[in-house]
């Protein structure tokens, strides 16, 4: 019995031992599998971590390189309109860093504020010994009256040329009558804008001038009204006007603007210069206010730019140009354009391609930056109503933050005596633009021509006119080039368009813009003369296109740009006290409206 129990106990222990050994085998197998799985997972985690570390390191290095080598943005996108070209360029920079407008303009020592060659030339308008004086050639009872036309500067051309016309006709000139009925709606008389006493006394040796037409037989003298064609030369006046003047003794030439040829004998051209640059001055109140504006600009900076900006809705509508404003722009400007019934259908692309569209404020800003003017330069802007308002001006202000006008540097009380008269306000802008270190325009209108000629006469101060034909193509293609390429081409295209001596050949263009007969050359050193000859040769080679553009942008005599057809529609309700003296009905004549 005991033996049986012992066997059962031993068998039970043996079975437990086998079971324990079997469990140990299973346990060791499981441990081996877990160890192997852990080893595999660790290797994979290590590879993933290494890959993540490598990618993160590359991204950090890339961001570091961008932050170090990328220059700061040229302007803040938050302050630019959605359709702004400057905004688009900045966005392009952020994406591919190709065309970036820099904040600085570069080296301004390249003659942008002045030019050394200007010292070789000076204005000269004295009459020769062959020029007869007024007391020797003025006929008694022969009076010439003229009625000017257009804005202040167009009227100025008529006043200047009227003195020459009186000299050709051996007549006494009555102080010209200013245009008070046209688009500009300014009731100012001659003596309220110009110093009439200085005008008369300064020219007393050349032409006899009186303030009013004398009575005839105790009664008011009604002159015979007539018109002369544009570009009328000496022979034209002697054959068309003199016979009528001899018979009637007093005539009035109406709408007298650009009625005298650009090509006259030298003494007559010099007479033009004596009138324009010496005799015809503004009244003391206008001069004093203009001087104050200049002084305030000088207080802000040693040098400043004056920009004559013409971007009014009426002018844009008349030119027929298109500036990317979509259906809204076409609808608004098209409605204005329909005021002129005789205008042909507009061709914006052709106008732009030929350089006949004024540059936008943004394009002017890009041109100035490319020429070397940085964002710290102060700009005085002479302009009327700008189409699109502040949204249109925003890109220019983003490029040049020091943006001024007569309204911002003078008080309302200071401008009160002038603000109700467009011509007097234009006279203030004329003074500041004339006195500026650099004068810039976006157009080729009358004010630009008159100031350009004056700045040539008084020392060839830099006067930048856009080479619009070439710049148009450049603006269109600039997304395909770097800023450096763009700036280099702008500088090349503007050769011959910065007011340097001899950049325009004698006799080419409008005389008031290029008074070559009144520019004399000094005797310099041999070195200076050699440098001048070399520069002239370089300008001749680089500026052949300049002559072509100048021909295309010649003044209104050949191209009546920015003019108003059917002018009589605007004045038909106004009385015409002289209409009863006409022997035949006068036909309405094309008139320069946007003439400034």
TrEMBL record:
The keyword Chloroplast does not apply. Keywords: Carbohydrate metabolism, Fucose metabolism, Glycosyltransferase, Membrane, Transferase, Transmembrane, Transmembrane helix. The chain crosses the membrane at residues 48-69. One of its GO terms (biological process) is fucose metabolic process. GO terms for molecular function: glycosyltransferase activity. Residues 531-596 are annotated as: Disordered. Residues 548-568 have a biased composition (Acidic residues). Pfam families: O-FucT. CDD domains: O-FucT_plant. Belongs to the glycosyltransferase GT106 family. This is O-fucosyltransferase family protein.
């Amino acid at each position: 019995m005991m033996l049986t129990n012992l066997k059962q106990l031993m068998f039970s222990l043996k079975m437990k031992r086998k079971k324990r050994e079997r469990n140990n085998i299973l346990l060791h197998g499981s441990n081996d599998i877990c160890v192997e799985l852990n080893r595999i997972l660790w290797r994979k985690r290590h590879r993933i971590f290494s890959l993540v570390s490598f990618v993160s390191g590359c991204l950090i290095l890339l961001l570091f390189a961008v932050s170090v080598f990328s220059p700061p943005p040229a302007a803040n996108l938050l302050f630019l309109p959605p359709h702004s070209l400057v905004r688009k360029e900045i966005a392009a920079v952020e994406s591919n860093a190709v065309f970036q407008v820099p904040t600085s303009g570069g080296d301004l020592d390249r003659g942008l504020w002045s030019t050394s060659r200007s010292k070789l030339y000076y204005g000269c308008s004295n009459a020769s010994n062959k020029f007869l004086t007024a007391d020797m050639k003025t006929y008694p009872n022969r009076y010439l009256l003229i009625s000017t036309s257009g804005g202040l500067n167009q009227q100025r051309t008529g006043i200047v040329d009227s003195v020459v016309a009186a000299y050709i006709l051996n007549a006494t000139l009555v102080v010209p009558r200013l245009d008070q009925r046209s688009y500009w709606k300014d009731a100012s008389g001659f003596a309220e804008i110009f110093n009439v006493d200085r005008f008369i006394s300064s020219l007393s040796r050349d032409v006899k001038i009186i303030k009013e037409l004398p009575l005839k037989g105790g009664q008011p003298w009604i002159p015979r009204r007539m018109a002369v064609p544009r570009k009328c030369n000496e022979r034209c006046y002697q054959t068309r006007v003199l016979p009528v003047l001899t018979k009637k003794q007093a005539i009035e030439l109406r709408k007298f603007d650009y009625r005298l040829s650009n090509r006259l004998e030298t003494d007559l051209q010099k007479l033009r210069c004596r009138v324009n640059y010496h005799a015809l001055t503004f009244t003391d109140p206008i001069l004093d206010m203009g001087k104050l504006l200049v002084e305030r600009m000088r207080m802000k900076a040693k040098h400043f730019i004056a920009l004559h900006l013409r971007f009014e809705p009426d002018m844009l509508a008349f030119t027929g140009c298109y500036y990317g404003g979509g259906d809204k722009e076409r609808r608004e400007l098209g409605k204005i354009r329909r005021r002129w019934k005789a205008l042909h259908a507009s061709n914006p692309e052709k106008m732009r391609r030929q350089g006949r569209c004024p540059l936008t404020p943004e394009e002017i800003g890009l041109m100035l930056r490319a020429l070397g003017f940085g964002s710290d330069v102060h700009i005085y802007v002479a302009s009327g109503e700008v189409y699109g308002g502040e949204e249109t001006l925003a890109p220019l202000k983003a490029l040049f933050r020091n943006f001024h006008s007569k309204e911002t540097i003078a008080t309302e009380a200071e401008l009160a005596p002038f603000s109700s008269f467009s011509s007097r306000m234009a006279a203030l802008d004329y003074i500041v633009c004339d006195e500026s270190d650099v004068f810039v325009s976006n157009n080729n209108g009358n004010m630009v021509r008159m100031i350009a000629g004056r700045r040539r006469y008084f020392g060839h101060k830099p006067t930048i006119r856009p080479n619009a034909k070439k710049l148009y193509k450049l603006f269109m293609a600039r997304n395909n080039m770097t800023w450096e390429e763009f700036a280099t081409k702008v500088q090349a295209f503007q050769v011959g368009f910065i007011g340097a001596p001899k950049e325009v050949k004698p006799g080419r263009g409008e005389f008031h813009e290029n008074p070559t007969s009144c520019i004399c050359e000094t005797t310099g050193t041999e070195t200076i003369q050699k440098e001048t000859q070399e520069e002239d040769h370089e300008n001749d080679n680089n500026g052949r296109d300049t002559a072509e553009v100048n021909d295309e942008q010649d003044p209104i005599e050949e191209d009546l740009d920015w003019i108003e057809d059917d002018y009589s529609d605007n004045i038909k309700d106004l009385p015409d006290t002289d209409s009863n003296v006409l022997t035949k009905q006068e036909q309405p004549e094309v008139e320069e409206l946007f003439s400034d």
